[in-house]
Please model this.
Amino acid sequence: MSVLVYVEQAEGKFKKSVFEAVSYAKAIADQQSTNLSAISIGDVAESELKELGKYGASKVLNVSADQLKTFVNQAYASVIAAAASKESADIVVLSNSFSGKGLAPRIAVKLEAGLADGAVELPSTDGKFSVKKTAFSGKAFAITELTSANKVIALNPNAFGVKENATDASIENFAADIKQSDLGTVIKDIVRATDKVSLPDAELVVSAGRGLKGPENWGMIEELAGLLGAATACSKPVSDADWRPHSEHVGQTGIAISPNLYIAIGISGAIQHLAGVSSSKVIVVINKDPEAPFFKVADYGIVGDAFEVVPKLIEALKAHKG
Amino acid sequence: MKILVCISNVPDTTTKITFTNDNTEFNTAGVQYIVNPYDEIALSRAIELTEGGKGTITVINVGEAGNDPTVRKALAIGADEAVRVNAAPRDAYFVAKQIAEYARDKDYAMILTGRESIDYNGNQVAAMVGEFLDIPSISIIKKLDFDGTSATIEREIEGGKEVVTVSGKFVASCAEGVAEPKIPNMRGIMSARTKPLTVIEAVAIDAVTKVAKYETPAPRGAVKLVPADQTESLIGLLHSEAKVI
Model:
């Protein structure tokens, strides 16, 4: 019995959400009085793999096969399941990232495991193994019992935090068998906006809605976000009108996020929007309508015109940063 | 070309979510049910891909007879036929197995789902169906083109997108951007009544998860309002009180 964590790399590097998944998996391994191994697939330097020890991984399986340099959902799932069986792992943990969402269900089927995706807390293990996960698009949580012997957990970004737990990680090359039939998808292109903070795992988010009146007015939103090191987001009407890309739409039919700080500017706070952001730790609402429903779920609010308030905030932030 | 679209029956997006029986069951009283909005996007793209006699669409739902209005809605939007697997959907594993066993010996070029259902937010069924059938699955796609033999798909990744091609059968879960959701017209609604809706029995498989209890998010304290003429003090509050910047 042990715990295995899949550590997703992007261009040879691990992101914070990966260290968070390792920290979370280490805490589960401690709960179970067992060891934590990690599996990395792709081209990752040994020094980067060693970093995983800092968060509690005592062993890192490294798969660097040529066919697996870039993401192939089916083959990656097979390799992770093979690693789980090699390590006798009955619990597999991964980050609930876009790729993680594609992998976790396949791993669960391979291991005949119950899957808790969107996990927000450590499992409770009082006789039953239950994981708290988001449900009803942020309007509720479901305490989900995993009744199978094997278990897969996909952790929501920002739900657990990164916790250091220094261990010396041993690195071991893992030569997994790769079936040709697992290589059915081929990546033709990867487009990454490298100058921007990625929204799903951002700690700070600046979001704006129809109150901004048009896409030409997003300059101040981007400037505020840039000063904070925040990602930008928007409401549904804004992405529907193509003022901003769909990938920025947060809410019930967009993406659900749980940053430390969510600043909503010119967004009234329809129930569908609130669903996607209600698990943010601190919510700031700026709206000229004092009756906007968003104020009811905000921690801080300013009743005022975005076109006056946001420039003042930018000035204040510049002064704060000195 | 035949396309299978998986349809989930979910509470309307404006539903206030409450629970009964000591928070162990979702309170269905007064709840309006709809086709899961993401599944509508998947169905709408299937309709675009089969328009002009290029193919047919089957929608499949795993659920009891109470789901039939939702299934008929999918037929009204434009599916050609419907299949309902007559069983309460116990978990994603159970549902995916039902869909996979239905599709296994049939010649669907692709199986489409929504990116997640808006009730349990799983995004599990598509990839599980792919695994049960041992065919590729691509999750959370933003664009889907099909040239008759291979598909070109854009998939969302953190901070960008990945363009993927796949030949042969596949499963994909659709997000916003794949298609504009289609609204049923009067002709669609009329014809939906007579389109075939076949009810089949479920295959036996154990569920592997069980919701033990629901919780609602803890209410926030009252909002602290900062006067608009003291906007700059917000930065101080976020720094020293909330400690988030």
